[in-house]
UniProtKB/TrEMBL annotation:
Subcellular location as annotated: Secreted, Extracellular space, Extracellular matrix
Chain residue ranges for the region called Disordered: 1-44
Main localization, broad class: secreted
PANTHER family, alphabetized: C1Q DOMAIN-CONTAINING PROTEIN, EMILIN ELASTIN MICROFIBRIL INTERFACE-LOCATED PROTEIN ELASTIN MICROFIBRIL INTERFACER
Secreted listed as a keyword: yes
Signal sequence extent: none
Record SMART domains: C1Q
Superkingdom in the source lineage: Eukaryota
Protein name in UniProt: C1q domain-containing protein
All copies of domain C1q, residue ranges: 57-190
Keywords recorded for this protein, A-Z: Collagen, Extracellular matrix, Secreted, Signal
C-alpha cells in the first residue's frame, strides 16, 4: 500500500553528561617579528663616588751605581767608589762613598766586589751600624750582598772594609768592584712632593766595624 503520513516531531531528549577534557596539544613555534627601531638615548646618569687614589707617581727618583778606582781602600772608613756609572739626582757622593736618602722610603742596595792578594771582610753600613757583613777567605774570589732597607730622609749608607789585614778588595782592567742602590718606593705619597733635599756633611772619623 501507499506510505503513511509522517508523524509529528518528538520532544527534545534530556541533556547528556559532560565528556572528559581532551589532551593538550603541543606548544607552537614562537613567531619571528622584525626588530623594532632604536629608541632615543636616555639622560646622563648621576656622577659616581670618587674612587681610591692610585699609586704615587715617581716624581722623586734616586738610583746610583759606582765602581772602585783603587784597590785595597782605606779601612774603617766608607769606601769611595769614585768611577760613577750612574747617579740620578746625585744622592751618592763619589768623593766619600756615602749615599744619602732623599726621602723616607724603602731602598735596595748591593755590592759586588773582586777579592785578590788577601782575604776580605766587608760590610754594608747604615748610620754607623753594619747591616750585613761578608767574609771571603779565598784569593781571586768575589764578595756579594743585596739588602732591602727602610730609610729615613738623610740616612747614610756605605760600604766599609774591616781592617788592613782583611782588605782584599780589588779592581783592575779585567775586574771591577761595584756599589749600587736605588729608591724602591717612598713611605707616603706626600713624601714625594714639596720636600727640600739637603745633604748633610759626613763626619771625618774612623768607624768601628763591629762583630768578630
Amino acid at each position: 500500500g501507499y506510505p503513511g503520513v509522517s508523524g509529528p516531531k518528538g520532544d527534545l531528549g534530556p541533556k547528556g553528561m559532560k565528556g572528559d577534557p581532551g589532551v593538550v596539544g603541543e606548544r607552537g613555534l614562537p613567531g619571528q617579528g622584525t626588530t623594532g627601531a632604536t629608541g632615543p638615548k636616555g639622560d646622563q646618569g648621576d656622577m659616581g663616588m670618587t674612587g681610591m687614589p692610585g699609586p704615587c707617581s715617581p716624581t722623586v727618583q734616586s738610583t746610583f751605581s759606582a765602581a772602585l778606582l783603587t784597590s785595597f781602600p782605606q779601612p774603617s772608613r766608607p769606601v769611595p767608589f769614585k768611577r760613577v756609572i750612574y747617579n740620578l739626582n746625585l744622592h751618592y757622593n763619589p768623593d766619600n762613598g756615602v749615599y744619602t736618602a732623599p726621602v723616607n722610603g724603602t731602598y735596595v742596595f748591593s755590592y759586588h766586589l773582586q777579592v785578590s792578594t788577601r782575604m776580605l771582610k766587608v760590610g754594608l753600613f747604615h748610620n754607623f751600624e753594619a747591616v750585613v757583613r761578608t767574609t771571603t777567605p779565598v784569593e781571586m774570589n768575589t764578595a756579594s750582598q743585596q739588602v732591602v732597607l727602610s730609610l729615613s730622609q738623610g740616612d747614610w749608607v756605605w760600604v766599609q772594609v774591616k781592617d788592613i789585614t782583611t782588605n782584599g778588595m780589588y779592581t783592575g782592567s779585567e775586574a771591577s768592584s761595584t756599589f749600587s742602590g736605588f729608591l724602591l718606593y717612598p713611605d707616603r705619597c706626600d713624601d714625594m712632593f714639596g720636600r727640600d733635599y739637603t745633604e748633610k756633611s759626613f763626619p771625618d772619623q774612623d768607624i768601628p766595624f763591629g762583630g768578630p
